[in-house]
Design a protein that fits this description.
2 copies of one chain form a homodimer. Chain A is mostly helical. The first copy, chain A, has a domain of about 90 residues: Orthogonal Bundle (Arc Repressor Mutant, subunit A). In chain A, about 60% of the residues lie in helices and about 10% in strands. Chain A has 6 helices and 3 strands. The first copy, chain A, has a 3-stranded antiparallel beta sheet with strand order 1-3-2. In chain A, β2 and β3 form a beta hairpin. The first copy, chain A, is globular, with a radius of gyration of 20 Å. About 5% of the residues of chain A have low confidence. Chains A and B meet through α1, α5 and α6 of A and α1, α5 and α6 of B. Chain A binds a DNA duplex through α4.
Chain lengths: ~170, ~170
Amino acid sequence: MNTAPAEEPRWLTDEEQRTWRAYVHASTLLEDHLDRQLQRDAGMPHVYYHLLVVLSEAPRRRLRMTELAMRAKITRSRLSHAVARLEKNGWVRREDCADDKRGQFAVLTDQGYDVLAQSAPGHVQAVRQAIFDRLSSEQRESLGEIMQIVAEGLQPKEAGADLPWLR
Amino acid sequence: MNTAPAEEPRWLTDEEQRTWRAYVHASTLLEDHLDRQLQRDAGMPHVYYHLLVVLSEAPRRRLRMTELAMRAKITRSRLSHAVARLEKNGWVRREDCADDKRGQFAVLTDQGYDVLAQSAPGHVQAVRQAIFDRLSSEQRESLGEIMQIVAEGLQPKEAGADLPWLR
DNA sequence: CCTTATTTGTTCAAGTTTCAAGGATGGGCC
DNA sequence: GGCCCATCCTTGAAACTTGAACAAATAAGG
């Protein structure tokens, strides 16, 4: 028996190595940048801002907790804490679900909407400045395709998922 | 005087919007994925793992704290905590700097190197599986260029930086 | 020298995220 | 109904991150 990894793993080529490093650096810097920008201008980190965005696009500006967690790609636990915080800020409010007594809706408040409306321009500008303004239209297109592919590959397999949705 | 934002901001086009969403989703899922993979196989999150990697590539496997922070794109504060944790694991050791009595070196221990060597294959496989195996060679190339550009744009301007290096 | 400014790394407090556990409801099945 | 198990969401503790404040040491100017 040989349980130890017998074969040499397929290491990254030099170019892949460089690409991967560049990706890690860029994504780290970008997330930091946006977190700071939003913390300063909106009083919340990027993940929280994103939650408000997702809510703002939902019908009646409300979503079930699980649905919101899935759309935002975060765990339910994390969402629970996050909503608690946003609730304290008055930007989100919880509402019981009539059909399912286990359920909770997260609802974007008017106040939350205002914060969003106020900080959106700055956020868009930051994103534009960091990414789109620097890329050619071919690159922009390419980036979209690539990220789409990567995201799909990591998406918890739907239907019969062996994961209780995202672990 | 008109301090309020007078002009309609340049919103993202629909395609840019989609691209940005795809990016956020992909990067979120990817970072989560790697964090879990490494937490499971190496007992540390991705950032910490990256610190070991950077150290392993430095001459004599050691770097000044600030230098390490810069290469890893994290704050000194965060690094301080991280090294404390890694030190507790016996994977990194601190050493005083002879030239500059304020200075500290973070040194990768043999034990740290072993952990790295052991977990590297799994990590590479995860990265490959999530990204490179899914992309065409054109896309791989494109991704590298794009991320390079984005990273450069966010890099704290060197020389005369008005930032105390990353705030 | 002597004073002032900068750099280096740490620490504290507050905030966030993760993980494991748990309470409650819903649904299927006999 | 009664039982079992899945789903919905929350909780608490531990780990991690952040930003500001800080002490020590060095660099820069006069």
